[in-house]
Structures are given as C-alpha cells and as structure tokens.
Amino acid sequence: MMRSEVMNQASELARTLLVLNNYEWLKSEAAAIGIQIIPIKGIDLLQNLYAERLDRHVNDIDILCKNDDECRSLVNQLCQEEYRIEFPFAMQPEALASKKKVSLLSCSTTKVNIDVHTAFVTKKFFSQTIGAFNSDALRRCKDGHMDDIDRWLFLAQHAAFHVFADSKWTKDLKLLYDGFSEEEKVSLMQRANEYGFRRVVIAGLYQTMKDAQDSMHHELRRLNPTSSERHFLSFVKHFDRPFSRTAFDRFVSAYLEFTFISSKSHRFKTWLHLLFPSKGLLTNIYRIKCATSIIIFYPLNLLISGLTSILFGLLYIFVCIKKTIAHE
Fold it and tell me: Are strands 83-85 and 101-106 parallel, antiparallel or unpaired?
C-alpha cells in the first residue's frame, strides 16, 4: 500500500473518531438540558451499520430534536460552546417551521459542524407531502435510533435529493437492503406505498442494483410499477451520470427532485407551493435576512418559479425527443 493511501486512511479514521467523540459530548450537552437527541444520516450509520468497521466517511453531525422548542434550546446552548448559527434567519419561527433545520458552524478545530433537525425529511419539495412519515418514523424510534426500514427510506430520499452524487450513499443503501429479511423487504414496499416513497424506492433500487439487472427487476416487481413509474425510471437512467455544481446540473437536480414525488396530486400541490410559498419557505429559499424586505420577493419568486416551470417542461420534451431518436 502506498504511503499516501495509508496517510489518507489514518486521516479518515482520525476524523471518524473525532465525530464519534463529538457526538458523545453533544449527547451529554443535550441531556443536561433535558433533551434526548436522535442521530441521523452518517453518525447514525457509524453507530449501527459501520459500528465494527468505522469505514464510513462522515464530515459533520446530523441530529433530530422532537420539536422546534427543543431545537431552539439546544442551539442556544451550543452557541455558548464554540458554535455559531450559519444562517441566523433560520431561527425565525416561520423559517424554522418551514426548513425544519438549523445549521451550526464550529469555531474550534476540535469540534465538527452540526445540523439540528426537527424532522427526518426536510427537503423543500418532499417535505410538503411526507408529514405522516416524519411523525410515524419518530414514533417507531427505539433506544434513540431509527427503525431499519424507516432508515432506508429516509436515506434513499436524501440520496435522491442529491441525485446519488456520492457513492457512499449507494453503498449505505445496498448494505442495508442486503441485510433485510424477506418480511422486511415486504414491509419496505408497504411503507413506500403508504408514505409516497414509491419513486424513491425505484430510484434507490436502480442505483444499488444497476450492475445486476435481473436482481433489480426482481425487487422492483414487489412494487408492481405503473407505466408512469417505468417512464420515470427511464428518466433516472438517462440522467445517471456524475453531477457537478454547474447551474445546469443544479437545475436538472431540482427537476429530478420534483419528479421523485410519487402522486400527481402531490406534485401539483408542491408546484403550487413553489409558485405561492409561505413566508417561511420564501425566507429559506432566498435566505432573506431582513423581514421587511420579504414583500419584494413574492412577485420575484412568482416570475422565477414560472420560468422554472417552463424550463422543466422544455427539459421533459427535450429528453423525450432524444429518447425517441435513440430508439429509432
């Protein structure tokens, strides 16, 4: 093994141990003010799926508080402990109710950044239609950790939101799914139906099994995909490529996020939210610091959202034409 590889592995392990130590400190800080936190995303996986190997890279700590009041109390406590709020407007009642997350930046080299959530699913499109999942997943938590099936659905929607840009998310989903029993796989599909995660599951299984097409189609048959869902899968395959931070890729990412919503009625509802957002959603989208200036952003958002809707339609038509030509 090359020396550079050894050094990288040592650095990764040191970072992992730092994250784990920070989490234990964070848990004690929360307990001191009567708050029980729930680890999510990378820190949760480190404590469960990767507990013996510790080979899962984690940059920061994501935790869940049960409500807005607990979130504010914990954030205020941490701001006295070498942390600062990344976007101060996020603590405004309307903004927190909409975003359901406050990001904290560390002011110390011995501390890592922290995201404090008040719901599992917080993405601006998805969170409009997944309220039942958030409350039920919280109820199913045991010993301060998510239920395994809820964890898979939650991680799949997070990876889908980021267009599966990081291979570690695909690895997480595959390891979790491979560990499921037959009964758990059936339960996963049932919850996908119940909570509107059908398209997320389709995309997640495609990403984790695209090198084993027979296995993928076998698992997808559990959902009995509709013709529109099969059409959706062809779109996912079309955009299956590394994504960058360019304006076009950000636009495509937003388009795909919208299409991950399973039902037409929910997509229409989300589109209306995009055109006519609440005060909190508007504050989060444009990161508005001055409350008095928010009135300016309503007509601006309507114009931008209208143009975005047109561009979404043009992108859809372009891909359909391209696919038709490819099949001829």
Answer: antiparallel
Tokens of 42: 């990378």
Give the span between the Cα atoms of 156 and 137, in whole angstroms.
14
Lowest-pLDDT choice from 50-54, 237-241, 323-327: 323-327
Closest CA to 45 of 172, 223, 171: 172
Q: What is the pLDDT of residues 230-264, one digit of tens each?
A: 988 888 887 787 777 777 777 777 787 788 888 88
State the average pLDDT over residues 36-51. 95
Segments making up each domain of the chain, as ranges: 1-118, 127-328
What size, in residues, is the chain? 328
Handedness of CA 127, 287, 74, 83 (dihedral sign): positive
Name the 3-class secondary structure at 257. Answer: helix
**More confident site: 71 or 237:** 71
Rounded to whole angstroms, how far apart are CA atoms 190 and 184? 10
Q: Please tell me the class of the 1-118 domain.
A: alpha beta
C-alpha dihedral (56, 62, 65, 66), degrees to nearest 10: -60
Is there a contact between 173 and 155 (Cβ–Cβ < 8 Å)? yes
Indicate the pTM of the whole model.
Answer: 0.91
* Burial status of residue 246 (CB atoms within 10 A of its CB: 0-12, 13-18, 19 or more): exposed
Q: What is the CA radius of gyration of the chain?
A: 21
Q: What percentage of the chain carries pLDDT values higher than 70? A: 96
Query: Which one-letter DSSP state was computed for residue 58?
Result: -
- Nearest Cα neighbor of 255 from 169, 179, 185, 315 is 315
Half-sphere exposure of 38 (CA within 13 A, CB side): 22
